[in-house]
Amino acid sequence: MIHVKTRLDPKLISRQAETFKALSSPARVAIVTSLAERDMSVNELVEMLEHLDCPCSCERTNISKHLAVLREAGIVSVSEDAQRRIYRLRARCLVEAISCTVRLSNA
């Protein structure tokens, strides 16, 4: 059992909830999981995610919107590489949280 030894700060709790809210979309979870493997451009993410069998739309505009949500939450960052925008996973700790959900679903 994990014990958190921190006082309950409403602002911190709200920020933490916003982070998890950013992961409330199957497409965004797939993006985070993909970026855990390597940094990618939007086009690379679209190609990778279009093979998913999920109800999420994997069109470029939708993926860009999902990336904006993840950027706003501080989960991913973006850098310029000539004409391409490269996305990088900043919050690697979330990969373990996502892995934990797989263990929960198998319990």
Helix fraction, binned, reads 55-70%
Strand/helix succession: HHEHHEEH
Regions with pLDDT < 50 over 5+ consecutive residues? Answer: none
**Strand order across the largest sheet:** 1-3-2
Please characterize this protein's 3D structure:
It is a single chain. The chain contains five helices and three strands, in the order ααβααββα. With 107 residues, the chain is of the alpha+beta class. The chain has a single domain (25-105), classed as Winged helix-like DNA-binding domain superfamily/Winged helix DNA-binding domain (Arc Repressor Mutant, subunit A), CATH 1.10.10. It has a three-stranded antiparallel sheet.
SSE blueprint:
Elements: H1 10-22, H2 26-37, E1 40-41, H3 42-49, H4 60-72, E2 76-81, E3 84-89, H5 93-105
Antiparallel strand pairs: 1-3, 2-3
Attribute tags:
single chain, about 110 residues, alpha+beta, Arc Repressor Mutant, subunit A, three-stranded antiparallel β-sheet, 5 helices, about 55% helix, globular
